Structures are given as C-alpha cells and as structure tokens.
C-alpha cells in the first residue's frame, strides 16, 4: 500500500532543498556585493551551508583586508565539518597576507599541500603574494622556484 503522504513529503523535500540552495546563493551574492554583515548573519542562521557560501564570506572579508574576520569564519566552517576547497585556501592566504599572519599562513599552506591544492597555479600565485606580504620574501622565492 502506498502512503498517501509520500507526494507531500517529496514536495516538501524538494522545496527545502530549493530554499537552502537559494539561501546559499544569496549568501554568495551578498558577500560579492560587499554586504558582508548581511552575508555573515545569513550564513550563521542557515542549517546547512555549502563550501561556496563559507568561502564567499571568507573571501569577502579577505578582499576588504579583514583577515581576522575571514579566519574567524574559517574556524566556524571547520567546526561545522565543511572541508575547504582550493578557492577557500586562496581566500585564506589573502586573509593571512592582509593581517599579516605568517604562522597561520604556513599552517594553511601545509593543509593545502596535503589536499593537493598548492599545485594549482592560482593557489600558488596567492601563496607567493601571502609570503611576500608577511615579510617572508625568501619563502616566496623558494616557492616560486618549485615549478
């Protein structure tokens, strides 16, 4: 016997997925438009956030040279168990360069290497910039010579 509520459950599930998708898209849009407070608040109110939403807010803060805020959002992302992608690392390296926080940058570089992201050209370019901004020109030169 088929449950008469099955179509309702399916519709509700589809609507929930659509709503969460729209919320994630809105976080990304707000962050890209510089409405970081709104993006941050919406992100924190959502039950399920994608790596793209987290990264958009991190990148927004990093682009505004608010490295501490970017790293704080990253710590929340870690608490939620969301794995960073290559774009997250780029934003985090920018954040570390803006503070500057060489120790944190080196730790993040190590994580990016383990994940295989540091071999991406755009990630490597951001790493070189971070090392330079953190006053570690020698490390930037060494890294740029690894190609």
Automatic annotation (TrEMBL):
Keywords, sorted A to Z: Repeat
UniProt cross-references to Pfam families, sorted A to Z: PPR (PF01535), PPR_2 (PF13041)
Example of a GO MF term: RNA binding
GO biological process: RNA modification
PPR repeats: 50-84
Protein name stated in the entry: Pentatricopeptide repeat-containing protein
């Amino acid at each position: 016997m088929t449950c008469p509520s099955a179509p309702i459950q399916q519709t509700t599930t589809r609507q929930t997925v659509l709503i969460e998708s729209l919320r994630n898209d809105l976080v990304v849009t707000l962050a890209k438009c510089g409405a970081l407070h709104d993006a941050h608040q919406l992100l924190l109110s959502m039950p399920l956030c994608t790596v793209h939403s987290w990264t958009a807010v991190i990148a927004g803060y990093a682009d505004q040279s608010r490295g501490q805020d970017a790293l704080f959002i990253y710590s929340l992302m870690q608490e939620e168990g969301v794995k960073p992608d290559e774009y997250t690392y780029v934003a985090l390296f920018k954040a570390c360069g803006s503070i500057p926080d060489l120790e944190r940058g080196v730790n993040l570089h190590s994580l990016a290497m383990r994940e295989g992201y540091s071999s991406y050209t755009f990630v490597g370019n951001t790493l070189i910039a971070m090392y330079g901004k953190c006053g570690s020109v020698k490390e930037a030169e060494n890294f740029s010579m690894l190609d």
